[in-house]
Amino acid sequence: MPLLPSWIDSANRPDNPFPLNNLPYGVFSTGDDDPRCGVAIGDMILDCRAAEEAGLLAFDAGPLFDVPFWNEVMEAGPDLWAALRARLMVLLGEGAGERAQVAPCLVPQAGAMMHLPFLVSEYTDFYAGRHHAFNVGVMFRGADNALPPNWLHLPIGYNGRASSVVVSGTDVRRPWGQVKSPDHALPAFQPSRRFDFELELGAVVGMASDGPVTVDEAHAMIFGYVLLNDWSARDIQAWEYQPLGPFQAKATATTISPWIVTGAALDPFRVACPAREFPLLPHLRDTGPMLYDIDLSVTLTPDGGAATTIARTNYREMYYSAPQQLAHHTTSGCPMNAGDLLGSGTISGPTKDSRGSLLELSWGGKEPITLDGGVTRSFLEDGDTLTLHGAARGDGFTIGFGTCAGRLIPALPDPYAR
Amino acid sequence: MPLLPSWIDSANRPDNPFPLNNLPYGVFSTGDDDPRCGVAIGDMILDCRAAEEAGLLAFDAGPLFDVPFWNEVMEAGPDLWAALRARLMVLLGEGAGERAQVAPCLVPQAGAMMHLPFLVSEYTDFYAGRHHAFNVGVMFRGADNALPPNWLHLPIGYNGRASSVVVSGTDVRRPWGQVKSPDHALPAFQPSRRFDFELELGAVVGMASDGPVTVDEAHAMIFGYVLLNDWSARDIQAWEYQPLGPFQAKATATTISPWIVTGAALDPFRVACPAREFPLLPHLRDTGPMLYDIDLSVTLTPDGGAATTIARTNYREMYYSAPQQLAHHTTSGCPMNAGDLLGSGTISGPTKDSRGSLLELSWGGKEPITLDGGVTRSFLEDGDTLTLHGAARGDGFTIGFGTCAGRLIPALPDPYAR
């Protein structure tokens, strides 16, 4: 697919992540005004509230941009999603007849502050990257039992904490928690010493359901995708997670990118899931290519230092697609809602430099990695900024999400020493 | 504490669960009107919307009852909670001066339909009853390793699915799911054959927090309690839960009682947690009696049959209190919100007839229980109604929650046979 040209010149640069082909959805504010919905185009943002007030965005569903989140658009359903995208193509495409009316609704990205693009209804995190599951399994259970017996038959998932989801740029505070060293008889309460990131893609559910849905129906329910960093306290997790799974280890924060890239924008980049070792049961069966070819990378920037790329991988490395995860999520009759967020699970590739967590990159802390400048890391240090990058590369254009970044700030003083 | 007399005679009967001492909060509708907030008093409901419109309930926080849920009251904070309860005592107590104005705001419970009393923000379920954890552990891991190593040091919890919480009276459909029999090499997708209940108490968080809180602060944050049945598909759980915990096994439905009994109403019934085998770390340390003496029982009613009481226990059997669970929940910095619901975990007592799940009562299906009339049950059958009952018994009065009931209806036809 070629670049779709826009009358906003910056959108036509091959390396700009927001060409007309993309049109991702976010929420922004400027110094003098409240948060409102916007669409990234080149180095500008189309202020949707202003565009709606100017009569440029008018749909039967009624006002959509009088609120600072995208949930109302989601709830209006896929016909509206398509109509909105088509209308944005007309307003922002080369040769647009309404340039004079649109221009006053454009705001430079450089001066904008980004906010959470949607109200997160509930957050589910999966464990559906095979290389990650295998690596973690080897470390914890040995190579012979690395993949749990159920892993190749269903996308393992657990419910996370929606209240902890934050937008890129939000500082993340090192958590306290209960941990137990193998050298001690009793647990201790202390700041996490093995605080980590997880490179994931998040799928944003746009339509509600109240019974089991098929993989194809699930695909249609997904509004878009964000980059997602599932911050993880490995020492807290190791002590707490048996038998009911991760809890406080994953509840400090989950950072997402500021822009939701829609399924429509990613459609030209669909790729198939890998060959199946066992045939999947009917509720999970592949019905078409439902992964995406999205290059992913991770940079780590120490306080005052330079950024080092510590991992490069691709979303096509997943074993289960987001529609498969969502279909599985509904099998029990579990109601889903617009605004539900599904983390893919850590996206590691097959090679050592394609691993999506420090747990894997430093092999449980035994093989620290070296950053540019010579400092080493096993897990994150205070002041480190961890940034996820994602790009689907078309013919002369790039689809991006904006970065997904967070800086680790020091733990509080002992919150219970009072 | 003695009965506080009301001018509504039915509230003064020793066996009525809604005396002036109680004043629990629910949401109800009548045939001719929308859902609205109400307070149970004897066999009547005070219509809070009508009372507010009549000027009987006026607070600085502004209108509280223009919405059909209690979250706005919660968010107004504990001073308002106390002021509202004090005002209700005046309006409904013996000798009230405004009887003539209050009387038109009373609606008979008999004709009312109950709805979810609050918007559930997020739902967390704990595993904090020692007898239950021990029984399940013996079945799954043997008596020597029954309690996981972390169990006596922290309240194990996992995030559940808020969208699946329903009010008492809602039918529950037997779920489909992926299960694997030990006799088969591969899993199958089929209706659950081991569908179960779990007898729990739910704590309703009324105040938000964004950092670690102490047990005492957590106690102050809890708005009230509900009966809670955490429906569980044991066969789905057995296959899916390693390594990240229960997911679809617990996502079909969680039923709660229609009335939230406030912390203030339960205050006279506070009792201490049991003696500690290991001292608890500071963030969990006991600071006073924070369990409640609440008699609990479970009845099972086959389709067209009579109710049999299958278990009797008491909330004082818990090892960890709800404030301890909530404090633990915040240790990582996890933000909490008004409307968060915390399930206690299954409340089994020490004896065979005090077990709070069929998994324990039938010992994994090996020892079916016999109901009145001679039929037996290992797990729930289609058409069974499962009802939880709770009562705190004062001197001449009873504090109740209303029942927490749900009927199991047959599974759908294969949702993927299309």
| Count of discrete alpha- or pi-helical segments spanning 4 or more residues of chain A | 10
Distance between the termini of chain A: 62 Å
The helicity of chain A comes to 10-25%
What proportion strand of chain A?
A: 25-35%
The biggest sheet of chain A, with number of strands, parallel, antiparallel or mixed sense and barrel status, is:
8 strands, mixed
Tally of distinct domains of chain A: 2
Classified in CATH, the superfamily of the largest domain in chain A is: Fumarylacetoacetase-like, C-terminal domain
What oligomeric state do the depicted chains represent? homodimer
- The secondary-structure class of chain A comes to alpha+beta
CATH topology of the largest domain in chain A: Fumarylacetoacetate hydrolase, domain 2
